[in-house]
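for the recovery benchmark. tokens below, seq after
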């Protein structure tokens, strides 16, 4: 068996950076996959049988491109962005954790697409034979459909920018006026950016 599943949700914001974590499970005749076999695992488009592009080294995701050529990308490196809201996969029961389990390979997908897309996974065995997750009879779980969601639109009222002068004095017009800078040319000011969402405020 060679299955593909989402660890949290099949959705991700289409901003190019929010990752969608997936897991491939590969049952063999008892042998463990080699590191090279694990590293060869890639996500492939069902529609074209073309491999999904890799996230370039030193990038967190798909950077903005006015041409919009890259719509989906994959990586093994987790980035710092929060995943799409969803229920994380539960830990295995202790008795299952001790039992012989399939080989598991985790990967992350990011997108700037506007439409859902179907994928399957493929890896290359040590003898050079490619193995696909979509070829086994009744292997519905060898194909997964991923859904891009429009990124939320920022609301201006949720942001507050506040200045605090800590050195240099204030002008006769008081804080946050042009006089505050015209009368004191050498000052030190701190700017606090606050963001409010869901009834909470964070700096």
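predicted aa per position
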């Amino acid at each position: 068996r060679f299955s593909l599943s989402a660890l949290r949700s099949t959705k991700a914001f289409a901003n190019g950076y929010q990752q969608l974590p997936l897991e491939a499970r590969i049952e063999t005749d008892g042998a463990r996959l080699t590191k090279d076999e694990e590293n060869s695992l890639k996500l492939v488009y069902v529609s074209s049988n073309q491999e999904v592009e890799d996230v370039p080294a030193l990038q967190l995701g798909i950077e903005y491109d006015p041409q919009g050529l890259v719509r989906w990308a994959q990586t093994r490196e987790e980035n710092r962005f929060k995943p799409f809201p969803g229920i994380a996969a539960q830990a295995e029961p202790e008795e299952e954790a001790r039992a012989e389990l399939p080989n598991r390979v985790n990967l992350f997908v990011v997108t700037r697409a506007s439409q859902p897309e179907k994928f399957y996974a493929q890896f290359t065995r040590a003898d050079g034979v490619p193995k696909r997750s979509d070829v086994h009879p009744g292997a519905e779980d060898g194909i997964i459909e991923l859904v891009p969601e429009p990124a939320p639109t920022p609301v201006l009222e949720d942001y507050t920018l506040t200045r605090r002068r800590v050195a240099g004095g204030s002008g006769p017009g008081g804080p946050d006026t042009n006089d505050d800078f015209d009368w004191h040319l050498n000052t030190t000011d701190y700017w606090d950016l606050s963001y409010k969402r869901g009834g909470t405020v964070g700096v």
